[in-house]
Every structure is written in structure tokens, then in C-alpha cells.
Amino acid sequence: MSKSTSSFLTTEPSDLIRAANLLRQGESVALPTETVYGLAANALNPEAVRKIFTIKGRPLIDPLIVHVADFTSLQQVAEYDSRLEKIKSFWPGPLTVVLRRKSNVPDLVTAGKTTVAVRIPAHPVFRQVIELSGCPLAAPSANPFGYVSPTRPQHVADSLGNRCPWIVDGGPCQYGLESTILDLSSPDKVRLLRFGPITVEQLEEKLGKIEIVTRQENQAEAALAPGMLDRHYSPHTPIKLIARGADLPSPSDKTAYLLLSRRLTLPTSENIFYLSESGLTAEAAPQLFALLRQLDQQGFALIWAELAEPQGIGLAFNDRLTRAAAR
Ligand code: TXA
Ligand code: MG
Hints:
This protein is of the alpha/beta class. The protein has two domains: 7-220, DHBP synthase (Alpha-Beta Complex); 239-325, no CATH class. The protein is 31% helix and 17% strand. The chain has eleven helices and 15 strands. It has helices at 13-24, 46-56, 71-77, 84-87, 107-110, 124-133, 153-160, 200-207, 219-224, 281-297, 313-325; strands spanning 7-9, 29-31, 38-42, 65-67, 95-100, 115-119, 137-138, 166-168, 180-183, 191-194, 211-212, 239-242, 255-259, 272-274, 302-306. β2 and β3 (38-42) form a beta hairpin.
């Protein structure tokens, strides 16, 4: 872990103007979104975008999401698709849609693809910075490539350290899991590329049946978008998974247990960590990445982590935990 020498900016107007000016000048700034912290740069400036890849150690074949303030700005970078009308109500919010790109988007952003991923974020700070800068902002999660995404400003400083000079402190992220990614780039297909806070049920209500193309189903495609690789979001400590409510494997002081909610049958132990009081996945999910990072620093030999019910936001939760456990 590198020494933290990042400078934190507040969400006061003068600091947000400063963040917007830095972005306009081609710098990269970490910003809060409602999902995770993003490492932002002007999406239309290839030199600025290149800094994101360098800071993250991200392969150039992995394309970035472009964040815009509204539907009109979205159409400056992506081709309009009439199916967007059915899902517009999820924006601003934690939904990313892959569409055919417009030619002004640099190849670096799309990894040379004919498509571009776009999102209209809901976080008021991110929105203000887009508006103040006047730039569409390319932003991947603000973590080193392959490591756990940051859901608090200190996570960005801890793992990117002095490589990321500016971090806007917007407190903890609301959802704590990355956006849902929906691919509408083929006119006759609706495909889900990543589970996220907007659930399959919510999308199917608007669009009818959706094809699920996450990495389990399509390894060939996963190789083309490394963000879909099996081993992603991984802490250094090995993780093993247990089913919801299953008995805990025999305890040892080198082993941590990461559970969805308090179990009254268990004795209090320094090795048992709870993601929520209620056991509701929606309450547990925003804490997942923060606790994985914390346990990773505590030097356990192994983390046993409990999966959620595989429905709604539980699909996104299980997806991230399963990838974190992949070796
Ligand atoms: O919640 C989020 O989506 C966060 C915040 C910052 O907005 N961003 C985020 O970005 O998670 P990133 O780069 O960590 O994950 C984006 C994923 C990657 O797996 C990338 O391969 C995929 O989106 N992606 C980007 N453009 C794509 C495209 N044109 N076609 C298919 N997949 C694409
Ligand atoms: Mg990421």
C-alpha cells in the first residue's frame, strides 16, 4: 500500500469549482457517485483519459463508462435508441447502458469498440462537477485494477495513494456496488452485462425478457472486457463462500467470518463481522466492499463470507463476492 498523499476536497462550492477546473485542464479527480467512487477525467480529451489507465494500472482493452448530466448530453456521445424511453425512469441513477458510439468519443474510452457505455449518475456532487466542468466524464471505479472498489473517500487514498492527487470527499456511497450494465447496442437484443442496484426484475418489467451475459455464461466476451473477468474485486486474503444461513466452518483465530446479519446463536467473537442488523441484502450491500477492505488489512489467513438470497440486489451482491473469492 502506498503512503497516502492525496489531497481531499470538500463538497463546498469553491472546492467543486476547483475540481471542475482541474478536470477541464485535463487532470484526473476522484469523485463520489451513488454506487462507488469514480476516477474521473474529461471523456473527450484522450490525454486526460490516459491518466486514468495509468493511475489504475488498467489494461487499455478495458473500456470506460462515460457519465453525463442528462439525456440530451447522452446523445452527444451515443446514438439514440427508442428502447431508452422505456428505461429512462431509472436515470439519474445506478444504470449504465451500452449503445452505439458517436465518432467524437476517443478510441481510448471505448477501447476501439463501436459501442460506448453511458450513465447519468444521481449523486448531487458528481452531477454538479459535470455541470461546472461542462465535460462528459469518463470514470471507472477508483481502485487499482482488480482490487475491491472504493465506497469511501479514504479507500481511494489507501489504495491509489499519491497516484491520485485529488479526491472529493462526499462521504460513504449509497449503494456500495457498481451500476447495472445493460447492453442495447444490437437492435434485436437486450443483454445484461453486469448485475447491479437496478435489478433484473425492474428491467424486465419495462423491457420484457433479458438475456443474462455475465461472465459465467460467456467467457469469450469476458476476455474482451476485463472488468467481467472471473477474478475481479479481489482482496489479498483468500475468501471462501457459505450459503445464506449455513453453519459456520470450525472457528480459528486466523479465520474471519463475514455474515449478512447478527446470529443470536453465536457467541460474541472478534472474528465475526456483520454487514447489517436486519439481514436485508439492501442494507448489507453498501457495507460489503468496506468490510472486505477492512478484513484484508487485519491479516486473517481466510475469510468465510455468507452469500445472499439470489434475487433482486442479492444477485449483484453474490456476483461481487463470488468474483472476490475467485483465484
Ligand atoms: O457504478 C459504476 O458503474 C462505477 C461508477 C464510477 O460509475 N463505474 C464502474 O466503472 O464500475 P468500471 O470501469 O470499474 O466498470 C465498467 C465496466 C467494465 O467492466 C467495462 O469492461 C464495461 O463496464 N464496459 C465499458 N464500456 C463498455 C462497452 N462499450 N461495452 C461493454 N462493456 C463495457
Ligand atoms: Mg471497476
